[in-house]
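Colleagues,

For the teaching module next term, I've prepared a clean inverse folding example: a structure given as tokens, and then the sequence designed for it. I'd like students to try predicting residues themselves before seeing the answer, so please don't circulate the second half yet.
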């Protein structure tokens, strides 16, 4: 008996030690992740691949690359369009091997299997065959992103009822995955080939975007969703009026974001758990004491959802939370925000449930979603509300916000169609907008003008054209509204959609890093530039799963200037393009100093970061010395992944770059609505 007791005690101690060790390996939540000087690597470094398996992987990659090279020589446009469906397998395994992102020994086997699958598709396509394009069930496909020309994967669940010929169109649900620090491309593709996910409604295509890893589908992750959806619409018959957004945990946060920013695109939104804003969530969930700068607080408005709550007037919303889940906070915040604008939110709560979806709640949610899908989204609603803090998100149904009095303050347009060819509109912090209905959409009498009451004043505008299309613009000058779009003087700059900043906006479209071929005037600046450029390249791959295109300043031609945002690294001495445009920027920079309005900073140990319309092509951005602006500390919690710098900043390089900032930010601000210094 005594021996048994001793053995039991030893086993208990071993079990306890193993448990403690296991818990130590788990990603931290809470105070352990609130230390900027002690930031763990995300994603973690994977296991070492044994030599024999490494050779098998390299051989498989080489063979598949040979097949891809053959396919890329094909002149068949159908073959060219399907190459991304093959290349996703090669890139997934290449990245995992090259960057040590097999996080467990068993994932090496997944990599070998993916190479076999990719080779099978390549062999089929070389024969002119592509059976996966007519496959139901679980299918993984790919597209080439406009941002960095990398191939990105997405998963699909194609219902058995789908017909590959015919005209009928299908409902499509977008499902946003939860946070996964080990969600490499290998793991994502493997998962999408074996799991149908939380919901598979009848006669519905379910799209699972990758979202470029684990960023809550923000920034490049946001663009990934839109590009994956567009790719799916090109390949399958999707009903534009029956597309919904859904997700849970981090995916729930993404669902709130897409619901409020693109409310007119969905027949419904179904967010579960997650977060809906930055400051309250981090205070409650992360126990973090926030000390934001004034501009960081403004920049929260890019993705914080409560201020956009009224936009959900256009998007039926069914929220879900577990009764005991701390992430119920997200829906509670949105429920309060909706209540303030007069909307009672449907909030399904799983009884005694933690961070999971209750089976009974699931049935209730599905019934409601099915009912909403039968109705579909409204294309020309009689009442439209648009709330915006930035021109980035400027559209709602037949209304487009063209310009604002001041970005990062709430702008709002409320419009209502009323009988007798009339429209009533009220605005706040708006200086320009357009009303547009496409062919067949206008409800107005074509034989009569349309009367618009705008902020209390009546304006008469022409009625619809013979195809029942209708369009009219208004702009404000000196406090008064005028019919028609604002007329710009030659060379006049104004902030407008997709050309409004902040710095991070440059990385939501095609961009190129432009490296200097000369030496900086200051050795301190030279060292900082080289370090920050390397950091930006590494972390673009690590966090947004792309390969940044890098070209020398001497290699940039009119083609690159016309097609891409240019991120210029260096100073006027080292980078030829900076030298060429520096006198056309609002900030002056020479060998001795940097001048911002009345402020002067020694150029020996300061550097500017900024975004501005490219003087060589004002329809694209130029950026000085910056990648995306949040850094390693923000990787630890998705709610932190927000812009950290506005339109421009001056960095004192005597303070080393850290996990939050690229040095000491000694001054920063937004440019005005005409891209001028404030």
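(Answer key — instructors only)
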């Amino acid at each position: 008996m005594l021996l048994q007791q001793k053995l039991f005690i030893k086993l208990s101690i071993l079990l306890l030690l193993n448990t403690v060790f296991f818990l130590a390996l788990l990603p931290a939540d809470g105070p352990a992740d609130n230390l900027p000087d002690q930031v763990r690597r995300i994603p973690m470094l994977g296991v070492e691949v044994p030599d024999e398996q490494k050779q098998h992987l390299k051989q498989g990659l080489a063979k598949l690359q040979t097949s891809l090279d053959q396919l890329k020589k094909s002149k068949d446009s159908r073959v060219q369009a399907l190459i991304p469906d093959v290349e996703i397998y090669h890139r997934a395994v290449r990245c995992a091997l090259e960057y040590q992102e097999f996080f467990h020994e068993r994932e090496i086997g997944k990599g070998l299997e993916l190479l076999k699958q990719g080779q099978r598709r390549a062999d089929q396509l070389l024969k002119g065959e592509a059976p996966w394009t007519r496959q139901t069930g679980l299918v993984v496909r790919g597209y080439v992103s406009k941002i960095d020309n990398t191939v990105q994967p997405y998963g699909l669940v194609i219902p058995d009822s789908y017909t590959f010929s015919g005209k009928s169109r299908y409902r499509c649900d977008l499902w946003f995955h939860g946070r996964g620090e080990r969600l490499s491309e290998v793991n994502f593709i493997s998962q999408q080939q074996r799991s149908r996910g939380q919901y598979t409604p009848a006669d519905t295509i379910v799209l699972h975007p990758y979202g470029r890893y684990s960023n809550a589908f923000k920034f490049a992750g946001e663009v990934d969703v839109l590009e994956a959806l567009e790719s799916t619409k090109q390949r399958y018959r999707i009903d534009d009026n029956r597309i919904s957004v859904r997700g849970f945990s981090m995916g729930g946060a993404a669902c709130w974001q897409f619901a409020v920013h693109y409310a007119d695109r969905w027949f419904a939104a179904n967010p579960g758990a997650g977060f809906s804003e930055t400051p309250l969530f981090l205070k409650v969930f992360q126990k973090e004491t926030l000390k934001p700068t004034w501009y960081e607080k403004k920049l929260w408005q890019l993705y914080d959802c409560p201020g956009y709550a009224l936009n959900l007037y256009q998007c039926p919303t069914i929220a879900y939370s577990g009764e005991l889940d701390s992430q119920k906070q997200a829906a509670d915040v949105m429920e309060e925000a909706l209540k303030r604008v007069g909307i009672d939110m449907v909030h399904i709560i799983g009884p005694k449930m933690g961070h999971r979806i209750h089976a009974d709640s699931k049935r209730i949610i599905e019934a409601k979603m099915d009912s909403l899908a039968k109705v579909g989204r409204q294309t020309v609603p009689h009442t439209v509300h648009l709330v915006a803090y930035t021109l980035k998100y400027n559209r709602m149904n037949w209304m487009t916000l063209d310009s604002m009095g001041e970005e990062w303050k709430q702008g709002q347009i409320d419009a209502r169609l009323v009988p007798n060819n009339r429209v009533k509109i009220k605005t706040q912090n708006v200086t320009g907008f357009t009303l547009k209905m496409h062919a067949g959409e206008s409800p107005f009498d074509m034989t009569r003008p349309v009367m618009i009451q705008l902020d209390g004043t009546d304006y008469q505008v022409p009625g619809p054209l013979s195809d029942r299309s209708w369009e009219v613009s208004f702009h404000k000058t000196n406090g008064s509204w005028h019919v028609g779009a604002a007329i710009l003087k030659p060379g006049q700059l104004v902030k407008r959609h997709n050309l409004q900043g902040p710095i991070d906006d440059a990385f939501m479209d095609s961009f190129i890093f432009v490296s200097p071929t000369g030496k900086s005037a200051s050795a301190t600046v030279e060292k900082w530039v080289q370090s920050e450029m390397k950091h930006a390249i590494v972390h673009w791959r690590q966090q947004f799963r792309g390969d940044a295109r890098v070209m020398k300043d001497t290699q940039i031609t009119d083609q690159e200037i016309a097609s891409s945002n240019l991120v210029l690294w260096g100073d006027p001495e080292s980078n030829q393009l900076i030298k060429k445009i520096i006198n056309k920027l609002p900030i002056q920079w020479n060998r001795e100093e940097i001048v911002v309005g009345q402020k002067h900073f020694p150029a020996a140990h300061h550097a500017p970061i900024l975004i501005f319309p490219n003087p060589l092509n004002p329809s694209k951005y130029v950026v000085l010395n910056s990648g995306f602006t949040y850094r390693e500390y923000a990787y630890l919690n998705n709610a932190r992944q927000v812009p950290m710098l506005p339109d421009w900043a001056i960095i004192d390089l005597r303070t080393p770059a850290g996990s939050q900032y690229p040095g000491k930010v000694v001054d920063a601000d937004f440019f005005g609505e005409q891209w001028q210094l404030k």
